[in-house]
Amino acid sequence: MEKLFEKLIGTWTLVELIEVPVDGGKITHPMGKNPKGLIMYNPDGYMSAQIMDTNRKNFHQEHWTNDTPKEYTQEGSTYLAYSGPFKTDDEKQLVSHTMYISLFPNWTGQTQNRIIIFKDGFLHLESEKPFTSNSRLVTHQLTWKRV
Asked: CB of 20 within 8 A of CB of 28?
């Protein structure tokens, strides 16, 4: 039987990202209804994930060093990126992402677990622990398809 590590290897494109409230409330789309994203798992044990809201607005200039605080706020709230080592746990059906670098500085150095489900050719990743988003306790559920 193929191990999770081997099944993950490759590049996946994002199909859906939703926030599911633990209390059963309304599902939301934190990166819009049609987000773009890539997650890459390499055989050397490193991964990279990038997700963006497709409704992002361009900055007023071509070079990012001269932009406004409002533009930086929009940039940070509509893009998610991190990279680092990953490990799998076949028994628990988990992948652990350790953020060596991250757009969100608080995540740098953290390890976060994701529940893995392979179904109908898709990779489903779900945050293992709920977290607070917009004053609600939620989990992230992401669906990916192989590129």
From this structure: no
List beta partners, residue 138. 21, 131
Average pLDDT over residues 21-40: 94
Average pLDDT score, the chain:
91
| 3-state class percentages of the chain: helix first, strand second, coil last, to nearest 5 | 15, 50, 35
Cα–Cα distance measured from residue 98 to residue 116, given in angstroms and rounded to the nearest whole number = 16
Instruction: Determine if the pTM surpasses 0.85.
Output: yes
The answer to whether residues 125 and 7 touch, using CB atoms and an 8 Å cutoff, is no
The tokens for 26 are 């309304």
Structure tokens at 32: 């819009």
Q: Name all domains of the chain by residue range, CATH numbers in brackets.
A: 4-146 (2.40.128)
Q: What percent of the chain has a predicted confidence (pLDDT) above 70?
A: 91
- Residues paired with 45 in a beta bridge: none
Collapsing DSSP to helix, strand or coil, 146 comes out as strand
DSSP 35: -
- Tell me the per-residue pLDDT of 91-121, one tens digit each, with 9 for 90 and over: 999 999 999 999 999 999 999 999 999 999 9
**Which residue bears the tokens 């890459």?**
40
